[in-house]
Write a structure and sequence with these properties.
CATH architecture of the largest domain: 3-Layer(bba) Sandwich
Number of strands: 16
Strand order of the largest sheet: 3-2-1-4-16
CATH class of the largest domain: Alpha Beta
Distance between the termini: 24 Å
Structural class: alpha/beta
Largest sheet: 5 strands, parallel
Strand content: 15-25%
Helix content: 25-40%
Low-confidence stretches: none
CATH superfamily of the largest domain: FAD/NAD(P)-binding domain
CATH topology of the largest domain: FAD/NAD(P)-binding domain
Number of domains: 3
Radius of gyration: 23 Å
Length: about 475
Amino acid sequence: MGEIAGFKQFDREVAPYRPLEERLADWRDVAEPMPDDRVQVQGARCMDCAVPFCHWGCPLGNIIPDWNDMVYRGRWRDAIETLHATNNFPEFTGRICPAPCEESCVLNIDERPVAIRQIELNIIEHAFAEGWITPRIAPEPTGKKVAVVGSGPAGLACAQQLARAGHDVTVFERDEVIGGLLSIGIPDFKMEKHVVQRRLDQMAAEGVIFKTGVHIGIDVSLDELRHLFDAVCLAGGARQARDLLIPGRELSGIHFAMDYLAQQNRRVGERGIVGEEITARGKRVVVIGGGDTGSDCVGTANRQGAAEVIQIELLPRPALSRSEEMAWPHWPMVMRTSSSHEEGCERHWSLATKRFTGSEGRVEKLHMVRLDWSEPDEQGRRVMTEVKGSEFTVDADLVLLAMGFVHPEHGGMLEQLGVELDERGNVRASKTYATNIPGVFAAGDMRRGQSLVVWAILEGREAAHHIDTHLMGNSDLPLRDQ
């Protein structure tokens, strides 16, 4: 694959970030484009490892060594065909996937892994630039109608696969734009929205119908939907945010991260804000939660002109490198620094928020305590204890709760449908993605819980195969393990 010893000859390289002062002044992508010729060199770093663990580490089963070699040899058209064989939306994963494939790359044992995500991004951008991304219209319609509820990556992948199988597909979205968190939750500095729109244009040309501002279970009943369509796929995501129910939670100035991020996305898209205005301008901002959503809040607050930004995490500070408990090729819980962190942010770990206080109904302080964590037991679990006498306060004008999502919203659609839930509160579905309601399927975060974009795309593709089989008796749509 590539150069036999390319991993020894060439260093790992990915696209650099734009200068800090420049990117803080706008909402454009933080990364500079990387020229194709330099990406071809990165393809040469892919070694001829007997077992491609990158393929194992990718939920989609992307055929990574093959398209790495194709890029190195300038076979861009073959590369996009190979990439699209397993991934409907490499322009999304090439930007916002945390790249578990790179963590499982053989070079990551003691070297720097192949820049797989960068190569993937250049493949799809090269294909768009060349005009190769065109509608793939089914040769014959089946006459079957499918409703997809939710337009995030799972719903979109399911819809595109089913449309290409010849079904009439309608995607329902309760928000005013298609894309789910791709359009509402992900800041433009991580993925500009024209990236989503050009793929939606392709899908519309393939026959997919998009309906926005339709809240299934409220605006349209599930009974009506089931009457109008031969099958329904629930792909609404896990949008029930984890709350912090402590004294003072009712104070003004404390918001869920997704409310904050969605509002800024609407500003950037010039669509007008919904509800109370939330802005970090001139404020002391505290972000509770150390994950990607928290990082997105940090980057957004810095661009809005926050006076200071602090991010706090309940868990202990991650290790700087792999340990025996995080042995290759598994995903390691190590310290990760995003572009947003580099733009300005104090980060703190092993802290618990005990209460909020303020005056005139607005938050002013967080009352914190330091935590001590035990070593992991045989199951990897740690025990948390509060450090006596470690209480202190943090000043804040704006608090953003970015502690993840617990499960799908149960009211409305799911309650009306009577769908069974699992022990975590997600929609229970079989290996064929079927729920307990005949003709109703579930995919994505709604079925598996909060997860990665790459898992969402896989779920949508797999659900489409089983829905197609349900409607037609068999399916030519691919499955991951086929």
